[in-house]
Amino acid sequence: MTTPAIDINYLNTFARKMVQEKKSAVGFPCNQNVKLADFYHWYAVSGLADVAMNNVGDPRKPSLYALNTHEFENQVIDFFSPLYGFSPGEAWGFVTNSGTDGNNHGIYFGVNVLSSLSEIKPILYVSEEAHYSIKRLGDLQGLDMRQIPTNVRGEIEVQAFEQALDPSRPALIVIAVGTTFKGGIDNQDAIDEILTRKKPVAVYRHVDAALFGGFLPFSENAHIVNHDVRKYDSIAVSGHKFFGFDEPLGIFMTTNKVLAKQNPFQVSYLNGSVPTISCSRSALAPLKFWWQIHNTGVDGYRRQADLILKNAVYLKHRLDEINYPAWKNDISNTVYFLRPGDWVMKKWSLAPYEDDRLGGKLAHDIVMRHEGMHTIDRFIDDLLLDQRGGSQTD
Ligand SMILES: Cc1ncc(COP(=O)(O)O)c(C=O)c1O
To answer: Which of 31, 211, 212 gets mutated to test ligand 1 (max ligand atoms within 8 A of its CB)?
Structure first.
């Protein structure tokens, strides 16, 4: 059989379409301001594009597979851990496949910690507006789950949480810091107050900060994801959201104390215990993260956080100006509004949602770095055209 030739025209047409589409992709939390062309150039000329590296194993332990980027992975975690309020030497973490991968580890690690403290099966508490991955993962791990109603801003209803909390069983709480649709942040003070008062037999707190966990450490609200302040046990953040990577990745951080409670499952061919759920892990992702950290630095991330938060305020302001029903939570880059016509939804890659408390059909715009004021103005023009009954095809 002959090898099919690579049709470059076919590929280039596809690439042009993607490059065009990214300009108006505002409905999903993917930062399209990806800046990795220099990295990929270096990667190819360095010879690494022809090497099969793999970060299998615990990045903090010597690996028997020499072709890995563990040293870069550790530097990524060492860069971020103080920004998330971990003391020196306290944190253990790794570069994940995604936010979901980080949540999976948070829930799994949580179950192990709780079972070291009590023989009673834990209950997973999560808000109804938390990301579906939490519910999927709770299901996967066979956990009893209580889904707690949310208020209109997408934050957990604290009274409903109190009612649902069963103090006779260990509590595994997944705290949403930035819900997917509305950017709701669960009230950690209120949750803590209830836990202190009702004293469940054991508690583990995992923070799902897939999107907001990227920008919060670089904002005036860094305390929300600060481990020292909030005393959470683990946190998951996505890399392709705020940080702007070209493919799914993320970071998971916890403490060495939590790590010590994990089932050791010794793996002799990997030099001991491997705490990660997946065996093979990307070696490229930590290298890209390392590259970005050195290109951007804390000040650069601060500027980026500031920009998206300001532009989200600008979008809300423009929507108010044209009297378009829209909402934005205080600490958020997510603006949600009444759902426009299908052509606007399609053109701007908007995601649909329903909430009867806000008039039914909704959509949202997650302001990432590629959505500047000029793009926002063009979006508003389309909403105005839509309101007049027009469409781009008219
Ligand atoms: C709040 C929240 N958690 C988790 C996820 C899943 O993250 P990932 O797509 O990185 O797996 C998302 C994705 O949008 C999210 O919004």
So the answer is: 211
Rounded to whole angstroms, how far apart are CA atoms 278 and 273?
A: 13
10-residue averages of pLDDT along the chain (394 residues): 91 97 93 97 98 96 93 98 96 98 98 97 98 96 97 98 98 98 98 98 98 98 98 97 97 97 81 87 98 98 98 98 97 98 96 96 97 97 94 68
The full set of domains in the chain, from first to last, is 15-36+298-387 (3.90.1150.10), 48-293 (3.40.640.10)
CA distance 364 to 345: 10
- Residue 171 CA, ligand 1 centroid: distance in Å: 22
Q: Per residue in 191-225, pLDDT tens?
A: 999 999 999 999 999 999 999 999 999 999 999 99
Chain position carrying tokens 């990524």: 76
pLDDT digits (tens, 9 = 90+) for 362-379: 999 999 999 999 999 999
Q: Please state, as a whole number, how many other Cβ atoms lie within 10 Å of the Cβ of residue 1.
A: 3
C-alpha distances (whole Å) from 389 to each of 92, 148, 342, 360, 375 are 55, 39, 12, 20, 21
**pTM assigned to the model:** 0.96
- Give the three-state DSSP class for 355: strand
Check: CB of residue 292 under 8 Å from CB of residue 298: no
Around ligand 1, the residues with Cβ closer than 6 Å are 29, 98-100, 131, 133, 178-180, 208, 210-211, 238, 248, 250
What pLDDT is attached to residue 393?
60
Q: Residues 6 or more apart from 204 whose CB is under 8 A from it?
A: 109, 110, 113, 114, 122, 170, 171, 172, 173, 233
How far is residue 178's CA from residue 342's CA, in Å, rounded to a whole number? 26
| Single-letter amino acid code for the residue at 144 | D
Q: Say how many Å lie between the CA of residue 30 and the centre of ligand 1.
A: 10
pLDDT value at position 394? 52
Q: Could you give the CA distance from residue 308 to residue 212 in angstroms, rounded to a whole number? A: 11
* Atom from ligand 1 closest to the CA of residue 100: 11
Which atom in ligand 1 lies closest to the alpha carbon of residue 238?
10
- Alpha-carbon distance of 214 to 272, in angstroms, equals 32
Nearest ligand 1 atom, CA 239: 10
